[in-house]
Write a structure and sequence with these properties.
This protein is of the alpha/beta class. The chain is 35% helix and 17% strand. A seven-stranded mixed β-sheet has the order 2-1-3-4-6-5-7, with helices on both faces.
Length: 248
Amino acid sequence: MTIVYEKSKGLTDVPFHYCPGCTHGVIHKLVAETLVELGVLGEAIGVAPVGCSVLAYNYFNCDMQEAAHGRAPAVATGIKRALPDKVVFTYQGDGDLASIGSAEIVHAAHRAEKITTIFVNNAIYGMTGGQMAPTTLVGQKTTTSPLGRDEDLCGRPIRIAEMLATINGAKFVERVSVDTPANVRKAKKAIKRAFECQIKGEGFAIVEVLSSCPTNWGLTPVKALDWLRDNMIPYYPLGNFRDFEEGK
């Protein structure tokens, strides 16, 4: 029998706990495949966040460390400084990184810490019931903004990638999406590039991945991907904001 697909060796055999249609599983797969293809799976140490991906330590087939809410970059900094030959990454959602952890990620970038961050932005707090996040779009309805996010009360959503791209210590910054097969391939390329940035000793690298949350958006998985494409990408444009070899 011809084998047409095999699960990445970078993932364990533990089934994901994510909701149907959630794209965390796709993003996990891309990170795992990248670690294997770069030959660094045995040297990798991941830092899991608080939020929907809190159990990420069960899924990646490498050493993992849990961090307190928002503190993954600080924990990763300590690991990388103690074990500089390891490939250290954080995997964080928008609640973890853009809210309580915003100071952590900014200062890690300013210090040019040689870590890689995978930032999953689904514009809502998924695990705790769908409250408004710093990344929730203006007009978007959540459990805490049932009439839609009011710009006058809450301001506009934070564009993390653009903000971090202004920091000299951030050597690789890119925003991608996993709404289509073509964009999934581009996301894989960006994630690989972010790990290469660390392996080459260049400095801090982050990939922001636009993701869907069918459960809390109240949409089917397919409609959720359509909503992401029609609403998130116009506000969070895809693209590379800084590359360590192009001097952006």
